[in-house]
Amino acid sequence: MADTYDVIVVGAGNAALCAALSAQEQGAKVLVLEKASEEERGGNSTFTAGGFRFVHEGHEDLRKDVLNDLSEAEAKLMVIPPFTAEKYTEDLMMATEFLSEPDLIDILIGRSRETMVWMKEKGVRWIPMFKRQSYLVNGVQHFFGGMAVEAVGGGWGLVDFLFRSAERNGIAVRYNTGLRKLIQNRRGDITGVTVFGPDGYEDIHAKAVVLACGGFEADPEMRVRYYGPGWELAKVRGTRHNTGDGIKAALEIGAAAFGGWSSCHAVQWDLSAPPFGDRVVLDNYQKHSYPIGIIVNADGERFVDEGADFRNYTYAKYGREVMKQPKRMAAQIFDNKTNHLTRDEYRIRQVTKGQANTIEELAEQLEISPEGLVKTVREFNAACQPGESNFAVLDGKHTEGISPPKSNWAVPIDEPPFHGYAVTCGITFSFGGLKITNDGEVEDTSGRVMPGLFAAGELVGGIFYQNYLGGAGLMSGSVFGRLSGRSAGKYAKG
Questions:
Q1: Helix, strand, or coil (residue 455)
Q2: Average pLDDT for residues 393-411, to the nearest whole number?
Q3: Are the C-beta atoms of 237 and 285 separated by less than 8 Å?
Q4: What is the pLDDT of residues 161-171, one digit of tens each?
């Protein structure tokens, strides 16, 4: 006789594993289904930097229950400004053009801190996000942009901690087993799933199902359908397995589509990166130090305000801007004054770069227009206003008389050697997904709850539109994973 389960969680990334652990807390017998092999497990979470954005009152507050391992000496060498619920809400709503569902945002932000503590209790270890989210100013690390904490080991470490916790709690995991259909009885209750695994098709029954298997960013047909021509050529930052299986299965039985179906999280990604995420290089193909330089297209022309805001507030939409450029590529340009300030990802072996003592030679190395780049750099330098720059704050050091402007950190590019890094668009995850209640239940197109069906993570719609806030994605996955898992566990045991 086949094993029976109370709750099936489809997916095995951050959101899915939080859901599984939360359901198990309710006394439920839980099965996790992972489409990938054990070696490729973890979904998109593995490919992240492991950064989380949550409410806190600064580094002394964080030392109470999140950064417990931080010593007094270490604490004195850093400044982590408080991040309030009000600021979190303001930043997220501004980024998403005030389209985000207010109830979901209230849950995400209101439960962010307690979820971080809960994850620590489950075995996840946290550290300050040095270098990527801080600048050294007078010997002190100043954190910026509202995100200052990451899991030890980044995304890989996060997933490993969660899997270890699942194993300690007796949660079963089946690999190489992908969702094909959701099973319902005649009343419409979800009673299990049809999967395809090593032995072919199989029906697995349970009292509740949590869908947490990611969006559709790895499906080129769906990308073109919802984002437009050319998107089949975008590189995928993360797993090749996120092909919208959970979304498709739910829509097929009448679930409501919801959220930003025409927009996605897409960043500047190394031009020579492979089609899908690399499990060795992970997120180091990203190139996120552009605020301290300039970005030009193949014609050598700027096309965005690189200093519009902190990286956290612009990086997830600027990849789409690169996608619109000739040849779907761009180049980030720095000089000797700024290149050493770039993030560690610029110094990996697998990087597409140029270095030269003249702008013309740099352009030739990067295969962009020398005439265009020379003209752009000359005009940019002339437009930079005087004053000292501080990359840890919005310093207001801007350009005047050029379009697009650079609103902060406008430092002339005039000290050789000059450095350039070729990038394209790397899609992270899709924003469109399923509509859920405040308890994580999936709704149908009539606004009714679909009994026994819950959702969490990237396939939940209504949280992100147009743009994204760094660290909010993993936080959302954890908060709604914990929420949906608890709801599914209670439903199954009720």
A1: strand
A2: 96
A3: yes
A4: 999 999 999 99
What pLDDT score does 135 carry? 81
The pair of structure tokens assigned to 477 is 């996955």
Q: How far apart are CA 48 and CA 471, in angstroms?
A: 10
Q: Which overall architecture, per CATH, does domain 265-426 show?
A: Alpha-Beta Complex (3.90)
| C-alpha–C-alpha distance, residues 68 and 62, integer Å | 8
CB-hemisphere CA count at 13 Å for 359?
21
d(CA 243, CA 179): 11
- Encoded amino acid at 153, one letter: G
Domain 5-216+431-493 identical in fold to domain 265-426? no
Tally Cβ neighbours within 10 Å of residue 284: 22
Strands (E), 11-95: 30-33, 51-52, 78-79
Domain ranges of the chain: 5-216+431-493, 265-426
Buried b / exposed e along 404-414 (16+ C-beta atoms within 10 A)? ebbbbbbbebe
Distance, in Å, from the CA atom of 79 to the CA atom of 148, rounded to the nearest integer, reads 10
* Residues ≥6 apart with Cβ < 8 Å to 275: 235, 236, 240
Other CB atoms within a 10 A radius of the CB of residue 351 amount to 18
For residues 10 and 179, what is the distance between their CA atoms, to the nearest angstrom? 7
The whole-number pLDDT of residue 144 equals 82
pLDDT at 82: 95
> In this predicted model, what pLDDT tens digit does every residue of 23-32 receive, in sequence order?
999 999 999 9
Lowest average pLDDT, out of 189-193, 389-393, 447-451, 485-489, goes to 389-393
Summarize the chain as % helix, strand, coil (round to 5). 35, 25, 40
Scored b (16 or more CB within 10 A) or e, 230-250 reads ebeebbbbbbebbbbbbbbbb
With a CB cutoff of 8 Å and minimum separation 6, the contacts of 226 are 216, 261, 262, 430, 432
Cβ-proximal residues to 151 (8 Å cutoff; 6+ apart), any chain: 50, 52, 124, 125, 126, 127, 157, 158, 161
What length is written for the chain?
A: 494
Superfamily the domain 5-216+431-493 falls into: FAD/NAD(P)-binding domain (3.50.50.60)
Q: Is the peptide bond prior to 386 cis by the omega test (within 30 degrees of 0)?
A: no
Strands 140-143 and 149-151: unpaired
∠ CA(320), CA(129), CA(58), 5° rounding? 110
CA–CA dist 24, 46 (Å, integer): 23
**What one-letter code names the amino acid at 80?**
I
Alpha-carbon dihedral angle through residues 401, 402, 407, 413, given to the nearest 10 degrees = -110
pLDDT number for residue 53: 96
